[in-house]
Amino acid sequence: MKLMKYVVALAIVFCATANVSHAQTVQYLGSGSSALFVELGQAMAALPDTVDPTAAHCFWTKNDATGAVAARDDRPGIPPGVAHTDEIGKIVIAWGSAAGGTCAAPVAPFNVYSNMSLDSVIGQRCFFMVSAGGAGCIQVLTEAPGTAGTVPSLLGSAFTDTPLPANVIAALNNQRMQEAATDIRPEDGKFASARMFTACGSPFTRNPYIQTSYQTYGLGYQTGTTGVGTDIASFTNPGTVFHVYDFNISGNDPLSGLALGARATYAVSTVGVQPVMVVVSPNDGVAGRLASKSDIMISTLSEYMFGGYGRTSDLTGDTVNEHAVTALIREPLSGTYNTFEYSIPNSNEFKTSQDINLCSGAVVNPAQNPLHAASANGGIAGAFRERALGTGQVTGALKAATTDTIGYFFWSAGNAGGFTATNGKYLTVAGIDPILDSYGDACVTAAGLAPGQLPNTAAGLACVTFKNLNLGDYAAWSALRIVSLSPVPAGVTNLIAAAQTVSATAPDFIPLSSLKVWKSHYNMFAIGVTNNNNGQTVNPATPGDLCPGSTGEGGGDVGAITISIHGNADFCTDFATPIGINDKNQ
């Protein structure tokens, strides 16, 4: 019934675009942000062209660890076709069928949509990379026909996967990825990659602000081979790594030397806006726990994340019941990491970093890869910064924690799944609740949730309004986007429109129709980006501009100041500029 309600609404949304050409079966083939995985997957499953003639919904999900589902970078310098250099992660595939077919045996012509959850910057690399074989990562899909989907579905309890048909596999296997789901702009993704290849501790200009210069520091993962870096290793899940390969968003590919061609005139379409949550664990009632508090100052949060603080008393003030704190740090190429990094510890206000003091000469200290660095200068035993790769490793480590642990991840109902009143608690930041009208308000109390308990029931999710984020008061947030070729393909436009409808009952992000805030944009001279245009805030499915007459966004915006969409439009009109209020950081 839930999906049928989506389809009825979407039939209206797509009245002008339903006649999608069937000359090309694959309408969307991408990878990227975990923050968008469930959202795009649910949207795929609700599209009018991903049902069979019986109105059954055709989709399949899997969290692969074997290499049968992967994204392959085939540029020179990267070992070809080797499982340990392929990118492996979750996937959702949705398809339809013409008359006479079913989900299990679709009849052509039909459309196919596919998205892998890897990471924002991996998704960007998989879009922008160019090899002799073509542009975009290769989708590896060697599952046997008829393979059952995940139980329960990765899209949520209301969804039931169907087996994967042979002709859907054939449509996707060995095809090149054409889109990237991301929670940071391509300019910010390229900056993050360039920072990885800059000598460890070497000054690296973040943004020449109007009056001052803002520098961060290189992370030293270069190997000496152009564009190929040292793998980032996980401490929380030993044996898992994050590959470090460079890419460009203009000019030539750094590994193949080939021109980006059409990829250099990419389009960026907005899906919505989502906050980063700060979560502590456990919440077991032991005296002095981090979870005994409900709020954390930005300065205190910054100190925990760069290793300056390592005691619970640094937050609680309880020196009698004092415990060591573990801070979970994401990989520096993560969109979540970069959103949090430049909004909190590495903002213009604090100018530190989650990856500070990890150098051994010009390269990252091998003893700190995986990151397991003593916090508080070793002043309290058991206090560490520890590396976790991906949202799943962060949420898993928080749920399993028996000692005081602090971490962060993008909000979504899926990411909140599995958290209870005792294995995790979110904190407000500087007194601001990112998802509810107020912390522990009457709505969540009526839903049976304790203050700070992550809402993951229908009653709890109904309380999520993003009120304070949409007022511009919460610091750590970012827009969710899709990077594609230009002009924007119909599959992207339809998918984003579907996500808006789904979000009405699955509050994972602020939809475009309700959005009141945006980020200022700024030049990034360190990577040759001099476009700081706020530009269009939304996508072709829902036209609208921050600045009337603007041709589109340009420049970095991760960690930038929050601005009013309406105020910025007035600024553009009053001062006759298509750029708007920009070139500013938090």
CATH homologous superfamily grouping of the largest domain: Periplasmic binding protein-like II
CATH class of the largest domain: Alpha Beta
What name does CATH use for the topology of the largest domain?
Answer: D-Maltodextrin-Binding Protein, domain 2
Largest sheet report: 14 strands, mixed
N-end to C-end Cα span: 44 Å
What is the strand and helix layout of this fold?
Layout: H1 2-13, E1 26-32, H2 37-46, E2 58-63, E3 69-72, E4 90-95, E5 112-117, H3 120-128, E6 130-131, E7 134-135, E8 138-141, H4 166-172, E9 175-176, E10 179-182, H5 186-196, E11 203-208, E12 213-217, E13 232-233, E14 241-242, E15 267-281, E16 295-296, H6 298-306, H7 313-316, E17 326-329, H8 335-343, E18 359-360, E19 363-364, E20 372-374, E21 384-387, H9 390-400, E22 405-410, H10 413-416, E23 425-429, H11 442-446, H12 458-461, H13 467-470, E24 477-484, H14 490-503, E25 510-511, E26 517-519, E27 562-564, H15 565-574
Parallel strand pairs: 1-5, 1-10, 16-23, 17-21, 17-22
Antiparallel strand pairs: 2-4, 3-8, 4-5, 6-7, 8-9, 10-24, 11-12, 13-14, 15-22, 15-23, 15-24, 15-25, 18-19, 20-21, 26-27
Describe the model.
- The protein is globular.
- The protein folds into three domains: 2-182, no CATH class; 273-470, D-Maltodextrin-Binding Protein, domain 2 (3-Layer(aba) Sandwich), CATH 3.40.190.10; 519-586, no CATH class.
- The strands form seven sheets. Strands 1, 2, 4, 5, 10, 15, 16, 17, 20, 21, 22, 23, 24 and 25 form a 14-stranded mixed β-sheet that branches. A three-stranded antiparallel β-sheet has the order 3-8-9.
- Helices cover 21% and strands 20% of the residues.
- The longest helix has 14 residues, at 490-503.
